[in-house]
Amino acid sequence: MRILDLLKPKDLARVSKLQVLARQVVEGFCSGRHRSPHKGFSVEFKEHRTYVRGDELRNIDWKAFGKSDRLYIREYEEETNLRCTLIVDRSGSMQYSGSRSGELSKYQYAQQLAASLSYLMLGQQDGVGLVTFDDQPRQWLPSRSRPSHLLAVLQALAEDGSRKETDLGGVFQKIAPKLSRRGLLVILSDAMGDLDSLARSLALLRSARHEILFFQILDPDEIDFPFSGRIQFRDLENAVNEQTIDSKSLRTAYLERFAEHTEKLREICRRHRVDLVQMPTDRPFADALHEYLSMRRRGR
117 phi and psi, to 5 degrees? Predict the structure, then answer.
């Protein structure tokens, strides 16, 4: 049975919406700017390809230039495709949506950003895999580079989020042994969890020589706490936990705790050489793609 036959009409519509959005974002942003895959490192020479602006100068074959007067890049067996795994947080805290983001939840933003990145990398013939998680890994798709793999990724992304708690560190500990070959890990999460556990897991992943890009997805309300008056707050990861409070009396303490949490996350990422990009949900997807492409071009 074809995979399309397994999808209900409403599910297919959601997948199609993700694919259309991804195509619009990527093709509108990257047309003519990113012609070839980004490469890794190996010692087994495979082939040459034409130099593209932004490629590392150290990879130019100067002997070939001397013979042909044209610039070529040396590629190696392991370099032929970048292997990327998107790690998408679908926990309860990701379900929050504020008015300034157009009622787009953090999880919906992550879904659409992940779809855009998948479309971009598969268009470059790079491999894309996917892990979705809350307190446990949920969906797991190994990295594949064939164009037909996009549908499987979008189908997995289109599933609803959960109301479970976040366990970044514990989840990364569980998926690390399954990432047998080094590659690029792109984390899409609000990082609202135990940062000490996260730090240990990032150290483990970096010791396996994975490159890590962390998109911290936040609603603008979480950044500047714009509330006033008496507000009822409900725990998105525990439906029975609700409190009505005076937001003015809470604002200063909240902003101080949020600043401490953010700075600690930045320090952890600096220590483990993880690229951290804070993405408010009112920020265009193209900005995230620009950050991604800039970091890939710079390399490590």
Answer: -65, -40
User: What global pTM score does this model have?
Assistant: 0.75
- Residue 89 has which token pair? 């947080």
Neighbouring CB atoms inside 10 A of 299's CB total 12
| Per-residue tokens: 138 | 């949920």
DSSP 177: G
The two three-digit tokens of residue 109, written as one number: 């933003």
Taking the C-alpha atoms of residue 84 and residue 125, their distance in angstroms, rounded to an integer, is 11
Structure tokens at 44: 């087994």
> How far apart (Å, rounded) are the C-alpha atoms in residues 95 and 86?
19
**What's CA 290's distance to the chain center, in Å?**
13
Domains of the chain by range and CATH? 3-31+82-298 (3.40.50.410), 45-78 (no CATH)
Rounding to the nearest 10 degrees, give the CA dihedral for residues 77, 276, 95, 119.
-30
Q: What is the DSSP letter of 211?
A: E
Chunked mean pLDDT (size 10), the chain, 300 residues: 45 61 58 40 56 72 83 62 88 88 89 88 86 91 88 87 80 89 91 92 92 94 87 69 78 93 96 93 82 67
CA distances from 36 to 30, 57, 79, 173, 284 (A): 12, 15, 12, 33, 24
